[in-house]
Design goal:
188 residues, 7 helices, 31% helix
């Protein structure tokens, strides 16, 4: 079985990071490597991360943005199969097992279904109504793009397409990256 890395880009996630890391640890298939990319958090995120063993923490000297953190996470991973979730995404215990079954020979990247939580937050509530971060409950091959909040991909293919465009600081990097994959003939 392939060894799998996971990286989590974080910025001020003190409210969610413990639950996120607990969900990563509770997977039915275990990650070989867990990497946190701290993008200059100024809340208690770092203090909370210190509670967890067997994680690698990389801290940026200044806030570099999401695409930079995604590239750094992939560059720093030691395995070819690399998963990524955002710092506020809690995984179902079967998430990795499920997405691995979909990552086939001709598929460069696949994503899971995300259910928006914390709906008392007005931004999450708006997103759940107007810009849901999933394509529904059915399996789709080659959707318009994959939502960057929870994916798995092959590092060698990420390298072939030139990684994420670091001009995307807060969002849109996932749409752009999926277009780069398609332009090179890779499926999602």
């Amino acid at each position: 079985m392939e060894k799998i890395s996971i990286y989590i880009p974080v910025f001020n996630v003190e409210r969610t990071i413990e639950e996120v890391l607990n969900s990563v640890s509770a997977q039915t298939i275990k990650f070989d490597e867990i990497i946190i990319i701290n993008d200059c958090s100024n809340d208690r995120t770092i203090d909370l991360l210190k509670k967890f063993k067997n994680i690698k923490i990389i801290t940026n000297n200044k806030n570099m943005g999401l695409s930079y953190c995604r590239n750094l996470g992939l560059k720093s991973s030691k395995n070819n199969f690399v998963a990524s979730i955002d710092g506020d995404v809690v995984l179902d215990k079967n998430w990795l097992e499920t997405v691995l079954t979909k990552l086939k020979e001709n598929i460069a990247m696949c994503g899971g279904n995300m259910v928006e939580k914390n709906l008392e937050n007005k931004f999450n509530k708006w997103r759940s109504v107007y810009y849901s971060q999933n394509w529904g409950d059915k399996n789709m091959q080659n959707p318009p793009f994959l939502f960057g909040c929870n994916t798995i991909q092959k590092k060698d293919i990420w390298s072939q397409v030139g990684g994420y465009d670091e001009n995307f600081k807060t969002n849109g990097e996932d749409i752009d990256f999926c277009a780069k994959l398609r332009n090179k003939g890779f499926g999602t």
